[in-house]
Amino acid sequence: MSRDLILSRADLEFLLHDWLHVEELTNRKRFAEHSRETIDAVLELAADLATEQFAPHNKRNDAEEPRFEQVDGVGYARLHPEVGPALATAAEAGLLSATMDAEVGGLQLPHVVGIAVAAWFQAANPGTWAYAMLTVANANLLVAHGSPEQVRAFVPPMLEGRFHGTMCLSEPQAGSSLADITTRAEPRPDGTHRMFGSKMWISGGDHELGENIVHLVLAKIPGGGPGVRGISLFLVPKYLLDADGAVGERNDVTLVGLNHKMGYRGTVNTLLAFGDGTVTPGGEAGAVGYLVGSPGSGLAAMFHMMNEARIAVGAGAAALAYTGFLKSLDYARTRPQGRPAGAKDPSAPMVPIVRHADVRRMLLAQKAYAEGALALILYCGRLVDEERTAGDAAARERAHLLLETLTPIAKSWPSQWGLEANTLAIQVHGGYGYTREYDVEQHYRDNRLNPIHEGTHGIQAADLLGRKVVMNGGAGFTALRETVTATVARAEEAGGLAATCGAALRQATDRLVEVTALVHTCPHPEDRLANAAVYLEAAGHIVLAWIWLEQLLAVQERDDDFANGKRAAARYFFRFELPTVGPRLDLLAAGDRTVLDTAPDWL
Amino acid sequence: MSRDLILSRADLEFLLHDWLHVEELTNRKRFAEHSRETIDAVLELAADLATEQFAPHNKRNDAEEPRFEQVDGVGYARLHPEVGPALATAAEAGLLSATMDAEVGGLQLPHVVGIAVAAWFQAANPGTWAYAMLTVANANLLVAHGSPEQVRAFVPPMLEGRFHGTMCLSEPQAGSSLADITTRAEPRPDGTHRMFGSKMWISGGDHELGENIVHLVLAKIPGGGPGVRGISLFLVPKYLLDADGAVGERNDVTLVGLNHKMGYRGTVNTLLAFGDGTVTPGGEAGAVGYLVGSPGSGLAAMFHMMNEARIAVGAGAAALAYTGFLKSLDYARTRPQGRPAGAKDPSAPMVPIVRHADVRRMLLAQKAYAEGALALILYCGRLVDEERTAGDAAARERAHLLLETLTPIAKSWPSQWGLEANTLAIQVHGGYGYTREYDVEQHYRDNRLNPIHEGTHGIQAADLLGRKVVMNGGAGFTALRETVTATVARAEEAGGLAATCGAALRQATDRLVEVTALVHTCPHPEDRLANAAVYLEAAGHIVLAWIWLEQLLAVQERDDDFANGKRAAARYFFRFELPTVGPRLDLLAAGDRTVLDTAPDWL
């Protein structure tokens, strides 16, 4: 497959350089070793590896999904044989540690560049890339919260691709409701813990890709606080390390079964048992676990990672939307079918379907969703860098607040509209798009996961309306409003299409501010949050309109196909999409009680 | 599986009897043998067979999809072994011919009842039921357009389940653009034709369910008119019949390959070769075909069937939406997770998720889509009966016009929003819904076919805006407007919620009428139809609001959970859905040129 069908290098270059001025980051100490050249080189490398090592087995890793096998009473997951070698090339190229500290072996690239690097793999083969993504998230969390010994023992092998990582949060009875987990960690005199419980939906929970798997596990220490305050974080390796750090005895973490998913099949998803007695490490019951951070701080540590994971989910959704768009555009340009409406001569040659207005509508919508989503994600990545490395504390704080506020939108909006892009990609292909002989049906199935994992759509909605827009006295929401307003001011100055779009965005933003205040006059949280999903979707569309206005301004000086394409997509977004916000905000302003007043027995 | 998770008997009873007064049809001569009792009995029978014979293998027929095998150089499709016996029970019960004339062995039930009967099977197992549906459509077409000999030879064995039927329209290079088919039918002196060409996307194109397969094939007779006027219809059996009507020599229709679909996997979908020389019937090249009707009338005959097929597609989409709704409702009532927003005590027991407002929102939306779609489809079924059996010619003509106008909406709206219902059904299930261990992911995959086959969403849009609303000087559109207005008048009289909804619907309808006229002031068809899909979606939502207002009025006198549920869903539709029509109509009124003015090279 051509890499031009995976992502657009021209668009990435535009977004990273022309719009976000990523090169400026290299003036900062952390990124001083880098330059535009090194940034572009690592992106080229990612594009090459994604195209050559990851894309080719994307369909096979879906069709031939991981299998469960039992050997001597112990369960094992068997992955597709092409997964391991592909991951090894990415690890060897240093891409797993692209953004990490040089001190632990990382390339210390800006986070925004790391997101762009990952996007190539997420578009080419999300099922295989997930093993790398989970491992990197795991390593990042250990670096932030683990002891120096834990970091030394586990992080370097992860970045080299020898160890892999998982995040073990959910349990069969506790998914969104983490307060209700029951996995317990019993302290032992030597400072270790013994873990007992079941963990559900664990991606990468078992395989033999490398030498070891590092599970980061949320559990409760008996006698700890109630609810989420009683949750601690533990490192539980599949194989214990001996005194020299070499892989030794098997720990009591075992594979109970696999979940068979609609999509994302290449990523093994498991039910794991901790301490069910399959093996008894050191002759004692329970899986050996090592406390990470302090008791009771497990959820906070996990959420440190979770915010970045949510942006990564949004990035994955955007990447799938993007590749689906490129593939359907390619199809539309080459598939002849029918004649223009009103053309009467049936013997005239057929035209490529991109000539039909309705097909262009579906392509423009995909372009608006995919490029808009990717731009939002990269903007958030830029905020991560700002939050960490901006020169003054006020700028760091402002970036932090803005990022916190945008995170539920960065997770949800690409997940919702990226899926919509993929359904349009299928539709452009007609019957062919519905078959597994083409790629787009897999993108659609894979993308359907994204509104569910790492906090469902509903969880993001409650987070945005219930927490983010009111935190710190509304400081994050204010920062967002000011940011949007500054763009609008520039647009009004620019005139033309930008000014028209700016005026519409100003009006929508003012209305959002008004409605946000109105909703928070409602005293009871259950009433206030009843239509949170409607709020999330309205706010999301307004944020994306702002992202499109930003892009419009960034091509202001250009007059070429690329710039005209950005203008067309921006116009599409402002004409077809932004106006849908009006009725949603009216519903919220009216304090609609339809959902609240519906009794479960009526349904 | 309980049949209460397939469809709701209470709702069917409400829609058919309380709302559509189907029993009144039994006063007409054609249905005089029937009564409420016989109608209810056949529906009970359908529910039983769907539950006991079809639902149990729905997942297996997806997981173990049809296989391609070659024996002595001839391709064969091998179906799941549970498909044949299930279809046989439906045929034995007489359900294939439920609505057909007693003369050909049918039960002569009203068409609206036939749709309700089929809905049970479409919800329980669409992959298996499709073989029956195609066979019935084929038999109906032959009864309407075939010669008496053709009917005698082929229809009774089809209704008995011994022969099956297909519709062969598309070719690899001609899908939506039927004018471009190249399959040719060469006349022979004995009045038969010899067929040469490839047909693509042929559902049920090969299998060994019975003794024979009756292909109805669109082809061109050399020297015929250009474009669609040169298309004729042929009957091409897989096995030729001997003089006594017994199955004899193999015809040259052979299976080239299977399409591997995302969903609807239980229905084999094929590429067929006609006359490629695999066999030479009677020692001569070409597949033997028999002209149905007159030369050049092929497309008209096929469209006779196609209109009913489009309503059947909408019915299938509604049925899948419905079963997904019932399953996610059942899950939401039994799955404990979390506590109400604002509840602070983490040791309080968890509540079933139906108690969370956001989950009720997703259930209400599904209810509004699924019950609304089913109601629309049954209304259309009632119009078919009216068109055929109403006492006076004016009523028949009016029903005909209304049905023609509603058909693109009846096909598209359930396909679009039924899919949306299914994505919400997955979302209610959380991670579980994304696994093949639960049913809803299959419903979602299956339902994704519906906006594609039997005329894509875009084709329906062009049909509605380009033909249906303007045909006969706008008579169909006027009939629709008058029908809606009459309901609004009743609603205004009824007062309360109905009057409020009625006022909103009156306003939306007036605006639709205005915008329809405005769009048609645009002289060039390409410009006029550029935003046809937006028009289809706006008109669809207005029609569904009317359907919900009708249901609201029909429960006016009741005060029970069922009636309160209908009220809640109607309120949901009017508060959350109908207002989205405003921006769509504004876009159309503005004659938006975004799509038209976007050059293919800009994308």
Automatic annotation (TrEMBL), chains A, B:
SUPFAM superfamilies documented for this protein: Acyl-CoA dehydrogenase C-terminal domain-like, Acyl-CoA dehydrogenase NM domain-like
Gene3D superfamilies, sorted: Acyl-CoA dehydrogenase/oxidase, N-terminal domain, Butyryl-CoA Dehydrogenase, subunit A, domain 2, Butyryl-CoA Dehydrogenase, subunit A, domain 3
This protein's record includes keyword Flavoprotein: yes
One Pfam family of this chain: Acyl-CoA_dh_1
Segments forming domain Acyl-CoA dehydrogenase/oxidase C-terminal: 296-463
Domain spans labelled Acyl-CoA dehydrogenase/oxidase N-terminal: 40-161
InterPro entries: Acyl-CoA_dh-like_C_dom, Acyl-CoA_Oxase/DH_mid-dom_sf, AcylCo_DH-like_C, AcylCo_DH/oxidase_C, AcylCoA_DH/ox_N, AcylCoA_DH/ox_N_sf, AcylCoA_DH/oxidase_NM_dom_sf, Diverse_Acyl-CoA_DH
Keywords for the protein's UniProt record, in alphabetical order: FAD, Flavoprotein
Superkingdom, taxonomy of origin: Bacteria
Residue stretches making up the Acetyl-CoA dehydrogenase-like C-terminal domain: 482-597
Essential cofactor(s): FAD
PANTHER family listed in its UniProt record: ACYL-COA DEHYDROGENASE, ACYL-COA DEHYDROGENASE-RELATED
Protein family: Belongs to the acyl-CoA dehydrogenase family.
Name of the protein in question: Acyl-CoA dehydrogenase
Biological source species: Pseudonocardia ailaonensis
